[in-house]
Amino acid sequence: MISEDELSRYKRQIMIFGKEGQEKLKNAKVFVAGAGGLGSPVAYYLAAAGVGSLVIADRDRVELSNLNRQILHNSSNIGYEKALSAREKLTALNPDIEVIAYDGTIDSSSVGMIVGDCDGIVDAMDNFATRYLLNETAVEKGIPLFHGAVRGFHGQATTIVPGETGCLRCLFPNAAPSEISPVLGTTPAIIGSVQANEVIKYITGRGRLLTNRLFIWDGLEAESTVMPFAKNPKCTVCAGKK
Ligand SMILES: [Zn+2]
Asked: How far is the CA of 236 from the centre of ligand 1 (A)?
């Protein structure tokens, strides 16, 4: 049930998808993998929209050089666990939701436990090793994966629905090299917002998802393009899986 306070808090979006849509958000549990540049806008907007349960995982501590883009954290949080800093800000924004913070590494031994019974996984990572692990877990458990990645002024996003669409490995058979990449804060702001928008569309059943399509953002040209892609019948992760 949606309370009077919730009716007021979510008034402007209930105008879009009704109390029924709001209840779907309230009953949803979403895992945001990473509390950095992408995880910040994703988690903020999902919390603001009233996603009832958020799991946020990050093993790092806040550093000064994070603050040009990781808006969940501020100068007084330097040295503090990012997952806990994120929970503090998200709970302050919306005390009606549950935020579960995991201050540890997402690896093959922890990922199943962290993902649990989540309805969606948001890839807000900065490395392909963890992205591939999230992709494999999503395909195995049949949970949608909302991918995002950024570099400099450029970013990309796609939505993977196991059994219906190609997976991250279909799209990127080989990992991009691991590096400390340049990032302007506005790039993850844009891509993270696209990811959060996809999560909200998926949960409320509105609109057309970025399935089998890669959204590509070029901030220097202020242009976006959408590139279609298909499931790879020989994919090492999703081929033959329903
Ligand atoms: Zn695949």
From this structure: 7
